[in-house]
Amino acid sequence: MEDNNAYINFGPDADWTEIVIEINADDLDRASDIANMAVPYGIYIEDYRTLMEEAWDIAHIDLIDEELLEKDKNKGIIHVYLEPGTNPSEAIAFLRERFGAEGINHTINTILCKNEDWQNKWKENYKPIEIGEKLAICPDWISDYDPKNRKVLNLEPGLAFGTGTHNTTRLCLETLEEKIKGGESVLDLGCGSGILALSSLLLGAETAVGVDIDELATKTAIENGKANNFTAPKYQIFCGDMTEQIKGQFDIVVANIVADIIILFCQNAKNFMKPNGIFIVSGIIDNRENDVLAAFEKYGFNILERHQSENWLCFVLN
User: What's the burial of 62, exposed, middle or buried (CB within 10 Å: 0-12/13-18/19+)?
Assistant: First the structure.
């Protein structure tokens, strides 16, 4: 293990840490979900299981570089990037614990990489995606996307979780589309990139407030708001604990985060809900369902709806 002092260079040319996780290809979906939820920076995935099919579907070609064809289709690689100054040992310990609990065989290595390497790599994996009936999420460096009649959120994912590609984010967005009729106030707990708050405004909400304890996330959320012409007081982002930063009550409170934090939020969420308000929670892997159900009961929440996408759950509560 490298000495911690190797990771305290905050200069503009500081190296990032790349965590390289090698696993069996069949475990890629579960492992990437864990990596994406556990590390609030960003990942990209090497998955060659359906290389031929995807090459045709996306590019309409059946000629693929020989180097790609030689890749082991039984193995997958997840790359996680940590910003300068971050000690990777905590992230690695967490990933090992979660992979072990899920029975996912893995190897983990770390290397140093230049900032520009990360910036080039992660953009390769993002393209416009359409969610529900009304929304499209488009990376802000893509200018030739035709949304037809959809509302478009131009997103700079940056290093904050929340790009619309994850099942949990999709579940939240599809639920918000159903619940927002126009004129609502929305509070996004653990807002990440701001995707849920901003999408709420595009869907017709009157105001949206986001809060996150991660300074990098809130910075990204604010910039994403400006890029989509949403600023205060219509769109506000706060950094810190929700009980200290947020005042007032909201029609819709939403949280897309891991189960343990959902359980923690349940203690105070009702204080921020209007009498007829709803609480939308996602980010819950199915093997934690009983834990969150116990928290809902303990803190007086009624379950109105339960939605599932693969191993991930979303609940609507009041």
Answer: exposed
pLDDT along the chain (318 residues), means of 10: 30 70 90 73 69 38 43 81 72 81 88 62 69 89 87 71 67 96 96 92 98 85 93 95 92 92 93 97 91 97 95 94
- Strands 207-212 and 235-239: what pairing? parallel
State the helix-helix crossing angle for 167-179 and 195-203, rounded to 10 degrees. 30
Residue-level pLDDT at 51: 43
Of 283, 244, 278, 231, the C-alpha closest to 260 is: 283
Task: Fill in the amino acid letter for 234.
Answer: K
- β-bridge mates for residue 78, sequence order: 21, 45
Which domains, ranges and CATH numbers included, belong to the chain? 4-123 (3.30.70.120), 129-317 (3.40.50.150)
Phi-psi region of 103 (alpha: psi -120 to 50; beta: other; left: phi over 0): left
